[in-house]
Specification:
Layout: E1 7-13, E2 19-20, E3 50-52, E4 58-64, E5 67-72, E6 80-85, E7 88-93, E8 104-109, E9 116-125, E10 136-146, E11 155-160, E12 164-169, E13 186-187, E14 193-194
Antiparallel strand pairs: 1-10, 1-14, 2-4, 3-10, 4-9, 5-8, 5-10, 6-7, 6-9, 11-12, 13-14
Length: 195
């Protein structure tokens, strides 16, 4: 990762449209449109998750960046899964004797090249004598994007309801709304957080 760049972590929820589920029917999810849905009562990011018991069910994500972290769950019902980034695949197990409360780090890498990548997370189920079951639960992922590598200037312009324009040139973090330095958090409509 280029420490001289402006590195920004982006969180992608399991319901985000930038993710591709080839067979959505293979996954169970809570219904956020239900009148009884309350995200604050669950340990999951934004109150949602995708869970499957179907072998080979997968989710894919295309990104450009040097880091990626995938979160889900671990416990006695969970088995093996494969994380493939580009052409390199690795197998892991989410099995644990006891359920983990809250999100569990399924995979992390901070040594990727700053280039386009394709991630595929695939459920393998109980494999090679796993003590667990066939389940896989995906909650969210985080990736790091580099907005201004060395030698570049970054200018972000945010317009809110046509009332206020905030311009930010990194190295001069300044909030025009308050007349004082950041940090700032901007949130887009699909709830991907930039901080």
């Amino acid at each position: 990762m280029d420490a001289s760049a402006v590195n920004v972590n982006v969180t992608v929820d399991d319901f985000d449209s930038v993710l591709s589920y080839p067979d959505q029917a293979a996954w169970q999810t809570p219904d956020p449109s239900s009148p009884t849905f309350d995200a604050s009562t669950t340990p999951w990011w934004m109150g949602t998750y995708h869970k499957t018991d179907v072998i080979d069910a997968s989710v894919s994500f295309n990104f450009i960046g040097p880091a990626l972290f995938i979160y889900g769950s671990s416990g006695p019902a969970y088995g093996s899964y494969e994380v493939q980034i580009d052409s390199v695949a690795s197998t892991f197990s989410a099995y644990a004797a006891n359920n983990v409360s809250g999100s569990f780090l399924l995979f992390g890498a901070s040594n990727l090249t700053y280039a386009p990548h394709t991630l595929t997370l695939r459920n393998l189920g109980a494999k090679n004598g796993d003590a667990g079951g066939n389940a896989l639960l995906f909650d969210y992922l985080r990736t790091t994007v580099q907005l201004a590598p060395a030698g570049y200037v970054l200018m972000l312009r945010f317009v809110s309801l046509g009332v206020l324009t905030v311009e930010q040139s990194y190295g001069i973090k300044h909030d025009l709304r308050r007349g004082r330095p950041g940090p700032h958090v901007f949130r887009n409509l699909e709830l991907q957080q930039i901080s």
